[in-house]
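Revision sheet: structure tokens.
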Amino acid sequence: AKIGFPFAESEFSAEGEQLALSDGEAHEKLLMHLYRRRRSFAQDAGVGQYSLQKLVGCSDEAFDFHIWYLKEKGLISYTEDGTIAITIKGVDHTISMSQVHRQEKLRISGSTTMNGGAEVNTDPPSD
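Predicted:
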């Protein structure tokens, strides 16, 4: 006998994985946009929902999910005038993710090169 919720096998397929990756990209795009807004207009950092939804190009339902998730994580909040702004936690998260992306790009571009079909490690020797 199976215990738990009756999930279809397809719910855990590559399509579901791609959906989660797509959600992650939308969250990063929203946070980066709100981060730039906060850096440019610290006292007026809010952005309207329509503009944000247009930025990520998603359905109303998907946008509601993105905003719910980011708000529950404490990364965004609603301003007094009803716009959405990044929080200090969101700023810290965005900076941290930017550093991770930069390190990953450096690792990918600098760690190995192709030499006659064989990969050659170009990292300095570790002690």
